[in-house]
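Re: that chain you flagged

S.,

Sorry for the slow reply, it's been a week of failed gels. I finally had a moment to sit down with the sequence you sent. For the record, here it is as I used it:
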Amino acid sequence: MENKRASSNNYLNYLYRLELARKLPGATKLDPLEERMLSCLAPAWHLGKKITVLEAMKNCSHMSSTTAHRRLKSLRKKGFVNLVSDEDDNRIKYVLPTDSVHQYFAQIWQCIEEARADRTHSHRL
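Prediction finished late last night. Pasting the structure tokens below so you have them in one place:
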């Protein structure tokens, strides 16, 4: 039970830090569906795969294709993704990450690291 409580506290600490980071001045506000869409796209980007708009909409099965398309447009407007046409077929557009999305993921990782450091520090006390 002690281990589960510690894990729960670590996760809650991470969520707390993430919420603080979201409230920092200059932080771009993403709605939960935009955050989820980035989470759906991240594995493909990590593997260096090109993902089309259609694939992005299918990968986010938790939302309708119309909603997914709207979120892609809003993420593009906020500077988190670029839509780039295929060199051979202009009907195909790829969803590419921007520096802003890499900064966003780095910020999340920093929150995880800080929560882990708190856990390590509290175990030493």
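What I noticed first: The chain has one domain: 2-124.

Talk soon,
D.
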